[in-house]
Design brief:
Two copies of one chain form a homodimer.
Chain A (H helix, E strand, L loop, with lengths): L3 E2 L10 H15 L4 E2 L12 H17 L4 H9 L9 H12 L8 E4 L1 H13 L5 E7 L3 H9 L3 E6 L7 H13 L3 E7 L13 H14 L2 E5 L16 H4 L5 E6 L11 E4 L4 E2 L4 H12 L5 H13 L4 H4 L1 H21 L6 E2 L7 E5 L6 H11 L1 E2 L1 E2 L10 E5 L5 H19 L2
Parallel strand pairs in A: 2-13, 4-5, 4-6, 6-7, 7-8
Antiparallel strand pairs in A: 3-9, 8-9, 11-12, 12-15, 14-15
Helix pairs in contact in A: 1-6, 2-11, 5-6, 5-10, 13-15
Chain lengths: 422, 422
């Protein structure tokens, strides 16, 4: 007899959101020889162990330059530390350099990856069963999972072909309120979204801020891909850089631009809380009971990388930006060469890692397994980002070589062609 | 006008447990010249930056010895990785070496410090409002805080002078059930507990396992201090090493024995779940939405330290063990020298960091502030570990030199003497 019943454990454990990630990982473990256009992990081409040593040394040197004696340098890197982090001032300088976002470093909480930033934000905002999160659909599974952990209901808001439909958003707010619910925030990825690949134009961004003010709604802006524009495109202003009334909680990640293995991200929460200080300080209290603080060793590695690049991750990622832009172009050009007749369509994103391919048949987990087993190529069924079946799949350009990419597209084309045969 | 109301945020933010840690940190920041017998942080005497480099190199070398090529070594340390961790097999060898605990590495989840292990465990076990955690009182504030984050009620079970009263525990289980609640587990720190300093004798440990089986209760064993026995004492078998029926979820920390700044801990959850695998795998699903994975860089540092010491943290902490045992003795001897007349009493723990001093007056936060300001010494009011005022304070021996310790005891004696004057 088993020790525990699954039904006696938290409901999230049987939820699709938490099992989705697991399923996708398992498929890729079962078929290690399949080429993966599923993984959103960054390219491994420039990983170098000596960088870890160099970044650690640079950060220690930076502390010395700030007047820390050797004991204080060691204490800062080795000991338990400030809950909100030890590289907040470096992160603030990075935001100023790369995003024209200017915030008080005290409004930044350095987190264990962006995922912890999501959990902290949603934990703070979920005060009772009436609270609900709106999320532009299709929605990144990480925010859905974070919401499940804190028992926060998520209402998808159809994003449509432009990535955001403001009328849909306003309607969703009004409907939630009519249902007796309290929409706390809307989660949105304005730049090269995961999974849609879509970006909001600047005018839509301004209107979204306006709607948020009118509807008294916070916006949770997630920006892991903003530094990776496609060829001929550039980097648009983030919502946070346009935010004049502290409507935007900004989530940052160093997983794609820094070093995924450091697991360092952050949240900018400069909202004021009546009778308290900044929202960042409230998130910090939650963090003290979630992870105590983000590993200072890991923070030192990211801090060193920022210092090595004069605070600019655009500068730090020159080679990676080139690779992603080239690969993204290779996917859309490659699809055009293989499917010239219009029965298959795909997005042509302005940047990021992801292309969404729409096909005239259902793309489910069974098809993914078949693709892995019989065709040797992995993708992500878009159904994982909706609460329903869909005829689309997501391709990622980030962790394959040019040669692998061509082979993967051939294999995918074979699968699609075989599926199209009646 | 403020952007948000505190009352619209999660209730934990106004809870004593979350504000307690914050308050104590603030006092120590306000009075940096006060000597701290409050902090439970490890000694900083042996921190050395070159160890970080050495441990990282040792772990990389270990991967090569396992047959990893250079690309795989870099990928393992730099990339997103296995949710349950990359040093689980090294942790299992450490448990075998130091604790005579023998577990399948697959039953281990490497976490962001022990705090994340607590949150994962309580999140899994809290499925509805009827679930409740029992905790031996006085209770470590970290488990109370973790419970608050997942809306899990905690019922204290009076530990008494021996650290655990089995009749009280059985009564608490029955009372909770009579109240329509479901006691999921009992949290206990059998070795040199924080804050009481008390340890359970071996017979009590066996009886506790028996009671857990009879009452169908899980035990959450937290063991951050087990490797630090006092002079003339030794290390008793953990509950987990005596556990023959998977009653014990074991929480491990490397903060005191490894390196606090790595923020690496773990949970052993070898319980089976009907229709699924191990409880560890369910915790892993939760972790994938909480922190994705524990920084592989930080894990590599701890892995390297384990490798450098042939998996034994007893061996790695020879000097630290000596310091803590000497300091602990200096506190109890120093109190005896200063208070020979019996109006003040204190515990004489068999190990760990903490001595509890009982005084004939209330020890509240105001007294702590007065002590910091007027006497230059910091301690922890025991009221922080209860839900009520108490006449006792906790002293920690872990992060002071012998000279600081003598000065701190003089200052504390002055405070107490002044308080005793009617």
């Amino acid at each position: 007899m088993a020790d525990l019943e699954l039904t006696s454990l938290h409901a999230s454990l049987t939820d699709r959101a938490l099992n989705s990630m697991n399923f996708l990982n398992e498929v890729s473990h079962h078929y290690p020889d399949a080429i993966s256009l599923a993984a959103g992990r960054p390219t491994e081409e420039f990983f170098a162990l000596e960088d870890l040593h160099r970044y650690l040394d640079l950060f220690a040197e930076h502390l010395r330059a700030q007047g820390y004696d050797e004991a204080a340098v060691r204490r800062t890197i080795f000991q338990y530390g400030r809950t909100k982090g030890i590289i907040h001032h470096l992160v603030a300088r990075n935001l100023a350099a790369d995003e024209d976002v200017h915030v008080d470093p005290e409004a930044i909480v350095v987190t264990v990856g962006c995922q912890e930033a999501m959990v902290l934000t949603l934990r703070a905002l979920r005060s009772g069963p009436e609270d609900v999160l709106l999320a532009i659909s299709p929605t990144y599974v990480g925010i859905t999972g974070a919401a499940r952990l804190v028992d926060l209901a998520v209402r998808p808001v159809l994003g449509g072909p432009d990535g955001l439909d403001l009328d849909e958003l306003v309607a969703a707010v009004k409907l939630a309120r009519a249902d007796g619910l309290r929409p706390r925030a809307c989660y949105v990825m304005p730049d090269f979204a995961n999974p849609s690949g879509l970006s909001l134009d600047v005018e839509t961004r301004r209107q979204l801020l306006q709607v948020a003010a009118e509807e008294d709604l916070l916006l949770i802006e997630d920006n892991p891909y903003g530094l990776f524009p496609a060829q001929g495109h550039h980097h648009l202003p983030t919502l946070k850089s346009l935010d004049r009334s502290r409507r935007v909680i900004y989530l940052g990640s160093f997983a794609k631009t820094g070093l995924p293995g450091a697991r360092v991200g952050y949240v900018v929460a400069d909202q004021t809380v009546a009778g308290a200080g900044l929202l960042a300080d409230e998130l910090s209290k939650l963090k003290s009971m979630l992870t105590v603080n983000t590993s200072p060793v890991a923070q030192a590695v990211i801090g060193g990388k920022l210092l090595a690049n004069d605070y600019s991750l655009v500068a730090a990622n020159r080679r990676e930006r080139e690779i992603y832009a080239t690969n993204l172009r290779a996917i859309t050009d490659g699809l055009a060469a293989r499917f010239p007749n219009g029965e298959i369509t795909w997005t042509v994103p302005a940047g990021g890692f992801f292309v969404v391919v729409t096909v005239p048949f259902l793309v489910d987990d069974a098809l993914l397994e078949k693709s892995a087993h019989e065709y040797g190529v992995l993708f992500t069924p878009m159904s994982h980002f909706y609460d329903r079946p869909v005829n689309a799949l997501r391709l990622s350009c980030s962790s394959v070589t040019a040669t692998q990419l061509e082979a993967a597209l051939n294999r995918l084309a074979a699968l699609i062609t075989d599926q199209l045969v009646p």
